[in-house]
Amino acid sequence: MSFAARAARRYPLRRMILAALGAALLSGGARSASSFRLDEWPASMPVPDFNLLDTDAAPHRLMDYRGEVTIVFFGFTHCPEVCPAALAKLALVMKQLGVVADKVQVLFVTLDPDRDTPASLKSYVEYFDPRFVGLTGSNAQIKAAAERFAVHYAKVVGGNDYSIDHSTGLYVCDATGRLRLVGNLLTPVSDWTHDIRLLAAP
């Protein structure tokens, strides 16, 4: 079984989201009808944030990107399948958005700060799109950020090397910084562009 398949089976994102939605409904919240195509994050959930560094060592919090639609993805540069596929899809989304892409920021948060140096992280994300931003930090900072986005990950050692199993959600925050939508590798590009255009509209 491939790494991507093992990660998908270990951390089924849709099941987690449905559980959160169920908890929101039981607590009295209601999901309003909308035309979004991606999974909607429950409005009752806390607004996520992070304290991380970009590849130039400048500190950033999620609120720094308010005013833009922000797509946050957690992964690592040695990822053999899932991460390059996700970033390639987001690059295509940005291309198809046209001028709307000026209102969108893609953030790639490394789950492997020990190996992903700022230089390698910068080169990695910019290979897919020069507008993408790589974020890193201490292991404690990465863990805190992942927990706030309900991202699961674990180091898997094999011989003298290791990989990282991780959940594969792509998290979409609106211009206020509120987490609104969650997509994945199977989400069609047309659904991405449809929902981003809605969030980016004045």
Task: Write a structural description.
- The protein has 202 residues and is an alpha+beta fold.
- It has 6 helices and 10 strands.
- It has one domain: Glutaredoxin.
- Helices cover 35% and strands 23% of the residues.
- Strand 4, helix 3 and strand 5 form a beta-alpha-beta unit.
- Helix 3 packs across helix 6.
- The protein is globular, with a radius of gyration of 16 Å.
| CATH first level | Alpha Beta
CATH topology (level 3) name: Glutaredoxin
How many individual domains?
1
Compute the gyration radius: what is it? Answer: 16 Å
Overall CATH architecture: 3-Layer(aba) Sandwich
Q: Structural class of the secondary elements?
A: alpha+beta
Helicity range of the residues?
Answer: 25-40%
Supply the CATH superfamily name: Glutaredoxin
**Share of β-strand residues:** 15-25%
Number of continuous helical runs? 6
For the biggest β-sheet, the strand order reads 1-10-9-4-5-6-2-3
One letter per element, helices H and strands E, the order comes to HHEEEEHEHEHEEEEH
- Largest sheet geometry: 8 strands, mixed
What is the 3D shape?
A: globular
Notable characteristics:
202 residues; alpha+beta; Glutaredoxin; 8-stranded mixed sheet; 6 helices; 10 strands; 23% strand; disordered N terminus
Layout of helices and strands, plus pairs?
Elements: H1 3-10, H2 13-26, E1 39-40, E2 52-54, E3 59-60, E4 69-75, H3 82-97, E5 104-110, H4 118-128, E6 133-136, H5 139-148, E7 153-158, E8 161-166, E9 170-173, E10 179-183, H6 189-200
Parallel strand pairs: 4-5, 5-6
Antiparallel strand pairs: 1-10, 2-3, 2-6, 4-9, 7-8, 9-10
Helix pairs in contact: 3-6
